[in-house]
Amino acid sequence: MKRFVRTEYNSVIQLKYRTVKKGNVEMKLQSNWHTAITQRTSRRSYQKQSIEPQKTVQIKALIDEINEKSGLHIQFIENGNRFLNGFKASYGLITGMPSLIALVGNTRDPELKRSVGYYGEFLVLECVSLGLGTCWISGTYDRKECLQSLNMKAEEDLVCVIAVGNTAQGKGIKEQLVSRLNGRKQTFDELLKEQDGNLPPWVVSGIEAARLAPSAVNGKPIGYRFKDNRLTVFITKKNHGAETIDLGISMANFQLGAMHEQKEGTWRKAADGYSFE
Questions:
Q1: Domain closes at, from 179, 206, 229
Q2: What's the start-to-end Cα distance of the chain, in Å?
């Protein structure tokens, strides 16, 4: 049964979605994250003002929850522009004063990059729900300086970062140009590589949500298959080493789309990818 709990943070309204299991842990997903999927767009121009304290508190609270559930060591850097100035962060110059979410985890974990994408996307959608702009950054930023500002254990590493901050309501000319250069989203049929028979509503909703997923380096290395009433996701090509991050991002969006059509499930590793069960 779906349960919603309404809480407010200075006009920020949060609707709690249902609790689902991922592996042996539970993660609370929220209905506003599904809404944020269609609102999210990569933003590269940020305003020169800090994120409001109430919103920062909410972001940090979700980071703490994710770290507890996942074993990741995600950290929030309030002043992130010092690691971005003068660098073409992944695929477009980042300007202004964004904060950074540093996605850190244990290098001994074979699922590290996928987990970073999966949980990082929930953080992105939470930030979008709070009215903030975001951008995945896995390419060139001042990684060395960023590492020095983090609290990390010997076996941990920084996988990538997410820029987050206040943005103008619409994109400026430069941002619009970068968006056009980055190409179009995949179509439904391009993302769903194989199917047999009619698709249930939860698969359609999940694929539509996954179609809108961002990419750590703006690639399209993910495919889905629905055969014998079984949904699987898999990597279709290499993506500068970030394809496993992109896999996790896509899985997060698909799960939210499926739950929007009342389908509860978890991802399980399978011989042909990951199965949603």
A1: 179
A2: 18
Assess whether 37 and 135 both reside in one domain.
yes
- 40 and 119 assigned to the same domain: yes
Alpha helices in the chain (DSSP H): 31-39, 53-70, 112-129, 143-148, 173-181, 188-191, 201-211, 243-260
Six token digits for residue 19: 């609790």
Q: Is the dihedral of CA 71, 74, 75, 76 positive or negative?
A: negative
pLDDT one-digit tens code per residue, 103-157: 999 999 999 999 999 999 999 999 999 999 999 988 768 889 999 999 999 999 9
Identity of the amino acid at 57: V
Distance CA 219, CA 28 (A): 28
How many other C-beta atoms are found inside a 10 Å radius of the C-beta of residue 40?
21
Domain extent for 270: 184-276
As for how many domains the chain has, the answer is 2
84 and 107 share one domain: yes
CA distance linking residue 233 with residue 192, whole number of Å:
9
Distance CA 179, CA 181 (A): 5
Task: Report how far apart, in Å, the C-alpha atoms of 35 and of each of 165, 255, 257 are.
Answer: 19, 13, 10
User: Do 108 and 155 meet the contact criterion of CB atoms below 8 Å apart?
Assistant: yes
Give the pLDDT confidence of 27-62 residue by residue, as tens digits: 789 999 999 999 999 898 899 999 999 999 999 999
DSSP state string for 53-65: HHHHHHHHHHHHH
Say yes or no: 141 and 23 in one domain: yes
Q: What is the CATH number of the domain that holds 244?
A: 3.40.109.30
